[in-house]
Amino acid sequence: MRLPKFKTPSCYIDAKVLKDNAIRHVSAQQEINRRALKSISQNTTLPMKQRIQAHLQLTSMPVFSNIHAAKPRCVETGRSKGIIKEFKLCRVSTTEAKTKGLSEE
Predict the structure, then answer these.
(1) What does the domain layout of the chain look like in residue ranges?
(2) Orientation angle between helical segments 48-59 and 15-42, nearest 10 degrees
(3) Record's Pfam families (predicted)?
(4) Contact indicator for 20, 66 with CB cutoff of 8 Å
(5) Pairing mode of beta strands 89-90, 83-84
(6) Confidence band (pLDDT; 50, 70, 90) for 36?
(7) What gap in Å lies between CA 72 and CA 24, rounded to an integer?
């Protein structure tokens, strides 16, 4: 699948960072449609045929339209593991920032 062109991030740039940014862009565009189809397919008051059609449309959507395909990444290093959400940094970058902050005092 070919990813669309988008605005490049202002952090560390890597192929994986660009892919995650593209996934976020596509999922933001498809979010309303995905939520509507999901609510239709889970609504038990609707006829079964309509629910199945909504579910088939949902499964035929591109894989990159799901926000869960994107991983949170460190803005300094681009790592995807050990991310602290409040700072958007990985644990390695936060320890380096702590040591720099302590040495400057």
Answers:
(1) 15-70, 73-105
(2) 180
(3) Ribosomal_S14
(4) no
(5) antiparallel
(6) very high
(7) 10
Could you tell me the CA-to-CA distances from 32 to 47, 54, 59, 82 in Å, in that order? Answer: 22, 14, 15, 30
Query: Can you tell me whether residue 83 is helix, strand or coil?
Result: strand
Token pair of 58, please? Answer: 């949902």
**Residue 82 Ramachandran class (φ > 0 left, ψ -120 to 50 alpha, else beta):** left
In our burial notation (b when 16+ CB lie closer than 10 A, e otherwise), range 73-84 reads bbbbbbbeeebe
The pLDDT-based confidence of 49 (bands split at 50, 70, 90) is very high
How far is residue 38's CA from residue 35's CA, in Å, rounded to a whole number? 5
User: For 52-85, what is each residue's pLDDT tens digit?
Assistant: 999 999 989 887 777 777 778 887 888 888 888 8
Residue type, 74: C
As a whole number of angstroms, the distance between CA 52 and CA 54 comes to: 5
